[in-house]
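Sat 14:20. Reprocessing the chain from the morning session after the first attempt stalled halfway. Input below, unchanged.
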Amino acid sequence: MSTSASTKPIAIYHEHPDWFKPLFEELDARGIPYVRLNAAEHTYDLAEDETPYSLFFNRMSPSAYLRGNENGIFYTLGLLGHLERTGTPTVNGHKAFQYETNKALQLSLLQSLGLPYPKARVINHASQAVKAAEGLRFPVVVKANIGGSGAGIVKYDSVESLAQSVANNEIDLGIDHTALVQEFIPARGGYIHRVETLGGKYLYAIKVYTTGESFNLCPADICQTTTGVELVRNACALDAPKNGLKVEGYTPEQEVIDAIEAIMQNSGIDVGGIEYIIDDRDGQIYYYDVNALSNFVADAVNVIGFNPHKKLVDFLEKKAQLVTEEV
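Finished this time. Tokens:
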């Protein structure tokens, strides 16, 4: 098929039914041609050398296995490699998705950048969990290497409870049979920080208030501000009332912004978020999660003062337009 660059649509590749409605609404409002591709049921032709898209936006989620769509996770790595080989411009491409689906690789990047993160060891068998915990401060968490939405994280308050869980065959290493044994950090102020980026640059930041026992901190799930105002949720509407999370906007120090931009630029993540925490015991900052699938906070205008989806579509439109001009 020969399609002129000017008429090629933007491809939005995803498997979650709700998370990207605000993105679609903004694309529709501007009349920008796009197609939705179901990452859970997809095929591609290895012999196809001409791209049918002006841009391919990867919105595949590592938590897809929670929705029975785990088949899309490893498949997506091959697809992105193929697209890049054929010259299809991608947003959150192969390199970014490698980091998205490998928490161990994320921490390795933080180590290379000299940025602090909660001390961790990597295991590929539950029998190694107790040994990996030697020298770590308890509590620790066993964290599946491929997670998302807080999935695959279990907290242990003592080495005895960890050993008992191993003995009872209760340790789940996740779908790639790899996990972190990592120090649990008590959050100063009862909140974690999440900084969103676009094009490798700072976009906005929020504080997410949590009990410390829940690991699902999806910003689209948050239903209330710290002042008690109920937010209009743009995604996860069924789950959001259950988590009790509260949110407020803030601006980080420049040193934090610089560190986060370095993480994103070195990981190849075009659109994403970084979470960090301040240890209540000593005030140390720790970066601990790198997200390429970044869901913007619900009711963003009321939380951060602007609609990030407008800026996201500005970014996508510019990327697609640059492709058109090059062709």
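Residues 308-326 form the longest helix (19 residues).
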